[in-house]
Amino acid sequence: MSEASATVHTTHEQTFVSKYIISFDHKMIGKQFLMYGLIMLLLGGALALMVRWQLAYPEKPLPLIGASENYLENSEVTTFMDGLWDNWLSQDSDDQNWLTKRMPVGIITPAFYNALFTMHATIMVFFVVMPILVGAFGNFLIPLMIGTKDMAFPALNMLSFWVAVIAALIMMAGFFVPGGHAATGWTGYPPLSSDPTWTGVDWGQNLWCISLIVLGVSSLMGSINYITTILNMRAPGMTLMRMPLVIWSLFIVAILLLLALPVLTSALAMLVLDRLAGTTFFNIEGGGDPLLWQHLFWFFGHPEVYILILPAMGIASEIIPVFARKPIFGYKAMVYAMASLAFLGWIVWGHHMFQSGMNPTLGATFMISTMVIAVPSAIKTFNWLGTLWGGNIKFSIPMLNSIAFVSMFVIGGLSGIFMASNAVDIFIHDTYFIVAHIHYVVFGGSIFGIFAAVYYWFPKMFGRMMNNKFAHIHFWISIVAFNCTFFPMHILGVGGHMRRIYNPMQYEFLQNFEGMNIFITLSAFVLGFGQLIFLYNAFYSAFKGKKAEDNPWKANTLEWSAPTPPPHGNFLTPPTVYHGPYEYSVPDMEEDFLPQIEKR
Amino acid sequence: MFKEFKFFPEQASTLAGEVDLLFYFLIAVSVFFSSLIFFLIYVFAVRYRRRSEDEKPQQIPGMLKLELAWSIIPLILTMIVFVWGATIYFDSYTPPKDAMEVYVVGKQWMWHIQHPTGQREINELHIPVNQPVKLTMATEDVIHSFYVPAFRVKKDVVPGRYTTMWFEATKTGEFHLFCAEYCGTKHSAMIGKVVVQEPAAYQDWLSGGTQNEPLEVIGEKKFQQFACQTCHADKPNSRGPSLVGIFGESIKLQNGQSVVVDEEYIRESVLEPNSKVAAGYKPVMPTFKGQVSEVSLLQITAYIKSLAKGGSN
Q1: Mutate to test the interface with A, among B52, B158, B289 (most CBs of A within 10 A)
Q2: Which of A11, A76, B31, B288 is 20–30 Å from A114 (CA)?
Q3: Interior angle at CA A130, CA A124 and CA A133, nearest 5
Q4: Per-domain residue ranges of chain B
Q5: Cβ distance of B187 and A500 shorter than 8 Å
Q6: Is A390 inside any structural domain?
Q7: B74–A378: do the CB atoms touch at under 8 Å?
Q8: Which of residues 208-267 of B touch A (CB under 8 A)?
Q9: CA nearest A151: which of A216, A231, A214, A220?
Q10: What's the rounded Cα separation, in Å, for the pair A119 and A128?
């Protein structure tokens, strides 16, 4: 590439380090977060597949690992398993390596299994979905879509990424410390998490806390930056009610992060102090209360769910009008619906604790506030449908993924009502019904939102188009395998299949579900390996894809008015905004779109 | 692939039918709305797919009536679900007065169960059919959750407090009992069963056990073992208040408030004796934290309860 002309706007020379590593440019930081999230996605996915293997083929050697010659003959497996249940704690002889300790004979031990599901959730929530949706797209899109040169605090932005890297390294270190990684579930309920005696995990849990505290600092830096940038640096004419919905969603998410994360950070700090300094915040011996953690964790945890889903909602609201060639249906209603979701997110945390023995009046209060969430969710869903209604719909790959997002969110949202309804929740709490619900929201919702966003903004990020054929194969594999994996989990849950159990075959009444568990696992493997097509497509296309035009989708928002890829400083001339972002198919105009920088 | 597959576990409690009915209603609502939405997506996808590049659709920025409809209908539906669900919830929360009492202590990785008559069981709970049973539950270590799928009940046991739950079995037979709250390495092996028997068979079982001393008698021994009676003797000028006849009554506290003497108050008074001192007494009682186990506490509580029925010290 002879991109000497692209440096017209930069006055200073950029070295490799200042361009790709310690970059102050929001676009590069966005790409760094994307890369970070995708690498962690591979790890988190691998952990999930190991969990699934154990659930379908309990106490059978893992493929590949189990076949390695370091392990015993298969005939010895049974004898070995008999001893395992009784001697799980005493397996710390020195002649074992990392692998044989955690998966002797290729079999996942109960202790390692518990670390696997804990780390799968931790990684997916904190190191995949948040960095990609908020870190990558927040950074890349906010300055471009509000028409400014960069973030308000570019250095803080750079720092936010590298602090997140430190957090990831601390989290990874946990896999290698004696005692294994944190094994208390991603919810980390004390006293299980506050005292090493109960799990046998010592530094794994400490590093888990410390890593999340560090990550909280990184998110805080990001959110302050987003709020400041959006409030102060919008281009002339870009009023709040002319902002694209994805910017609205990121703005609301930044506020949620700013208010929710410190709660988690302080709870984690208390937990670390309980573990290391002998305090008793969560320990009844010293007058503490384990329920305090649950209140703090879920006071953070429920807004966190909206942090994971709101940007995906924004992304779908961005993509659907472009490919329906119609304005978004009810722009203001969409903004207010997101704001009310964010508000309601603060007053519903108790629905995670219905069986902790709370006063039923309080339980009923949390029940009604949770029920009300159905209203803004319904408004959003029907507004997306209203946008499709009477449109001129092009089923491009970002559009397919956005529609998949809407559909999966509908299922995830409706299954949420089961949990809001106290009497039913008491039955399905801690079963696979909950696992199905969270995956419909976070995978079906957030991850399909991520796919849509990557396909849609890839041309602007890397200046090249992604391969359409691979993208279609990936989409259809994902949507089919996703539903085959997670829909049957509803049925498992209703049948009484609990989550976080090592071996369902130990339970007589779950043995009927063996076939279903195997089916889920096979689907999960198809789903997991299907994602390799996506990763290959992304990396291949970034270097070898077809060159993209400046505005390949004929969209209105400001980023498409910038050159592709946008140079340092983004716009050749500072843009001025004349109208809202969804002016598609304006009557009496030749083109069916009207960029925000063009006068009507 | 699925041998004798059933959607719900067996219904074996008075609550199960009510919960399942609400569940079916929610499934109906969910299936209706998801079918509606998927049908609309499908119709729009076929009807409005792009046929030519220059065809321009009509702009529809919004439509107030439609938007009100899809806000208000879900609101009404969720409020119906709320009222319906809350009714079941309140009913399932308050045990009937005639409920038989059983004490449960969870620990890694077993359930320890004590009957008022003194029988003790591990990972098994024998109860009579058609009789409300109230469980008072505690834990020795971490949080566990008492879960009987066939009864549609589940309640956490949380360190530092008693939780209670109740159910009335409607069928005899054996039902699975699990810990539903992840509780450490061998969580999945914390398996038990509830054995529901005809009242006669239950009486046989009660008289058949080896441990036949009633719980309150064991409790009285523990009461003496910890030397509680030195201060809490039922005579004037004792250092501590008499415990005869106080269970279930409201008593005055030093700070002018009053409190109803229940399991939780007794537990608190043993472990945190100075937090709620009865009026007229000095806060001189030492804590028994770390000395008395949850199991013994429940026994002592049973003894104090028996004093309310007219027993004497």
Answers
A1: B158
A2: A76
A3: 120
A4: 8-35+69-211, 215-307
A5: yes
A6: yes
A7: yes
A8: none
A9: A231
A10: 12
Q: In this complex, do A388 and B49 lie within 8 Å of one another by their Cβ atoms?
A: no
Indicate whether A577 belongs to any domain.
Answer: no
The domain B215-307 belongs to what CATH superfamily? Answer: Cytochrome c-like domain (1.10.760.10)
What distance in Å separates residue B92's CA from the closest CA in chain A? 8
Work out the minimum CA distance from A444 to partner chain B, whole angstroms: 15
What class is the B8-35+69-211 domain? mainly beta
pTM of the complete model: 0.90
Closest CA to B23 of A368, A438, A418, A432: A418
Selected residue of A274, A414, A435 to mutate for chain B interface (largest B Cβ count, 10 A): A414
What DSSP state is assigned to residue A496? Answer: T
Mutation target vs A (from B82, B271, B275; most A CBs, 10 A cutoff): B82
If one counts every other C-beta atom within 10 angstroms of the C-beta of residue A359, the result is: 9
Per-residue pLDDT of chain A (600 residues; tens, 9 = 90+): 344 444 444 455 678 888 888 899 999 999 999 999 999 999 999 999 999 999 999 888 887 666 555 555 555 666 666 666 555 545 455 556 677 777 777 788 888 999 999 999 999 999 999 999 999 999 999 999 999 999 999 999 999 999 999 999 999 999 988 888 999 999 999 999 998 888 888 899 999 999 999 999 999 999 999 999 999 999 999 999 999 999 999 999 999 999 999 999 999 999 999 999 989 999 888 888 999 999 999 999 999 999 999 999 999 999 999 999 999 999 999 999 999 999 999 999 999 998 887 888 899 999 999 999 999 999 999 999 999 998 999 999 999 999 999 999 999 999 999 999 888 999 999 999 999 999 999 999 999 999 999 999 999 999 999 999 999 999 999 999 999 999 999 999 999 899 999 988 888 888 889 999 999 999 999 999 999 999 999 999 999 999 999 999 999 999 999 999 899 889 999 999 999 999 999 888 888 899 999 987
A55 to each of A110, A329, A498, A515, how far by Cα in Å?
Answer: 12, 44, 11, 11
Per-residue 3-state assignment (H helix, E strand, C coil) for chain B: CCCCCCCCCCCCEHHHHHHHHHHHHHHHHHHHHHHHHHHHHHHHHHHCECCCCCCCCCCCCCCHHHHHHHHHHHHHHHHHHHHHHHHHHHHHHCCCCCCEEEEEEEECCEEEEECCCCCEEECEEEEECCCEEEEEEEECCCCEEEEEHHHCEEEEECCCCCEEEEEEECCCEEEEEEECCCCCCCHHHCEEEEEEECHHHHHHHHHHCCCCCCHHHHHHHHHHHCCHHHCCCCCCCCCCCCCCCCCCCEEEECCCCEEECCHHHHHHHHHCCCCCCECCCCCCCCCCCCCCCHHHHHHHHHHHHHHHCCCCC
Looking at this predicted complex, what is its ipTM? 0.87
- Cβ of A158 under 8 Å from any chain B Cβ? no
Most distant CA atoms of chain B, gap in Å: 99
Q: How close, in Å, is residue A308 to chain B by CA atoms?
A: 22
In angstroms, the separation between the Cα of residue A84 and the nearest Cα of chain B is 11
* Chain A 427-446, residues with CB within 8 Å of chain B CB atoms: 427, 429-431
Contacts of A159 (CB under 8 A, 6+ apart): A221
Angle between helices A397-420 and B14-47 (to 10 degrees): 160
Q: Is residue A215 situated within a structural domain?
A: yes
- How many domains is chain A built from? 1
Contacts of A509 in chain B (CB under 8 A): 9, 149, 176
What CATH number corresponds to the domain at position A381? Answer: 1.20.210.10
Interface contact B62-A386, CB threshold 8 A? yes
* Number of CB atoms found within 10 A of residue A208's CB: 28
Hey, are the CB atoms on B54 and A592 less than 8 Å from each other? yes
